[in-house]
Specification:
The protein is about 10% helix and about 35% strand. It contains four helices and 18 strands. Strands 1, 2, 3, 4 and 5 form a five-stranded antiparallel β-sheet that branches. It has a five-stranded antiparallel β-sheet with strand order 10-11-12-13-14, with helices on one face. Strand 3 and strand 4 form a beta hairpin. The longest helix has 17 residues. The N and C termini lie far apart (about 130 Å). Keywords: Signal. This is Lipoprotein.
């Protein structure tokens, strides 16, 4: 095409484009029809997967070649006969429980480990604003075992421990704490100490703490009962404990409070202006036992330190018998004989109980208590 003709054509097209009328909106009659099978774009909400149930907890207690660990039925039993057994003053519970009054805290207080669930417990000392001991327990499907103490806090010596690691698996558990101690560094200066504790199963399946057997709350059964000797023993020979003046100190009030709780009573049930509680004391295996009657003419409670062992409608008698120490108590006029295990803070019934029934019920011997 000649160059003159091509230039003229391009000029005409440019003019036409500039002068073309603007596009008109489509009328409803001319709009495209909606196609039923046209693709639709919307959000597809996928429900969150349900959490997987945790593997079942295994049994706790036997410990391979190490001494057997004592099994506690629940957390309350663990506190009462495990953590508080030696010195019962204080409050005990799971770490983070506000009722304990503890200042120690951790963002993670339990973890799966060693075939069960490892949990942190704290014992807060009463009459001390800032003093706590932290313990590790392992929960299985049959109860708890106490593996050891993992931290201590006393505001006069250190800051509350900071838990840096609490991690476990099927065969091991690691706990790391960081703590500022005063007067522990050079020239009695402050020092920050990291403490690492490990719990692991050995080749025989025993749980060891830092390669050693745990030494807390061991299951050390008393010698076997000689039931023939038990049935033939003269239980009326068990002596009365020595009468003592009621101790109204803080420790005495704490003991009375625990005795009231064992009887299902409260402070409102006793007359603060009436006669003081009656009390008798004796020592067995280097430990103090108290027999206390909180209310006049009411029931008696046998206490080991501040742990209630049993109650009785008459004054409890305590003494040595076949293969151990025993307590003689009554339910109404019915006599009962218990063998004492002061290590576990228990009074196991033997008559009636492991050695059968008592042949003759006690009639009116000595002082008879009238139960309200």
């Amino acid at each position: 095409m000649p160059s003159t003709t091509r230039s003229l054509l391009l000029s005409c097209l440019a003019v036409a484009a500039c002068t073309a009328p603007p596009p008109q909106p489509l009328s409803l009659s001319s709009a495209p029809a909606v196609v039923d099978d046209a693709p639709r774009f919307d959000y597809r909400h996928t429900p969150e997967a349900a959490p997987q149930p945790e593997p079942p907890l295994g049994h706790v207690g036997p410990n391979g070649q190490c001494p057997r660990l004592r099994v506690f039925s629940d957390a309350e039993d663990l506190c009462r006969r495990g953590i508080l057994a030696d010195i019962p003053l204080g409050r005990c519970g799971r770490l983070g429980d506000a009722a304990t009054g503890s200042d120690v805290s951790a963002s993670k207080r339990s973890t799966r480990a060693l075939g069960g669930r490892a949990e942190l417990f704290v014992r807060h000392w009463v009459r001390s604003d800032d003093r706590d001991d932290v313990y590790l327990a392992l929960r299985g499907d049959n109860g708890y075992v106490l593996l050891g103490q993992v931290a201590e806090f006393y505001s006069q010596f250190n800051d509350a421990p900071e838990f840096r690691r609490f991690r476990g698996d099927a065969d091991s558990l690691e706990i790391v704490t960081r703590q500022l101690w005063w007067f522990a560094g050079p020239d009695d200066g402050e020092v920050t100490l990291d403490r690492r504790l490990t719990f692991a199963r050995d080749a025989e399946g025993a749980i060891r703490r830092d390669h050693a057997c745990p030494d807390l709350a061991l299951d050390l059964p008393p010698p076997p009962l000689d039931c023939e000797a038990v049935r033939a023993f003269d239980w009326s020979a068990l002596p009365r404990a020595e009468a003592v003046e009621w101790d109204s100190t803080y420790e005495g009030e704490a003991l009375l409070g625990r005795a009231l709780g064992e009887l299902g009573l409260t402070w409102r049930d006793i007359d603060e202006y009436g006669d003081p509680p009656r009390a008798r004391e004796t020592r067995v295996q280097y430990q103090s036992l108290t027999v206390i009657q909180p209310k006049p003419r009411g029931r008696w409670v046998l206490m080991r330190e501040q742990l209630p062992l049993l109650t009785s409608s008459r004054e409890v008698r305590i003494g040595e018998g076949p293969g151990g120490y025993y307590a003689r108590s009554w339910e109404g006029k019915r006599e009962r004989i218990h063998r004492l295990d002061l290590t576990t803070a228990t009074a196991d019934p033997v008559l009636p109980g492991a050695c059968g029934e008592l042949e003759d019920e006690d009639e009116d011997e000595g002082e008879v208590e009238v139960v309200e």
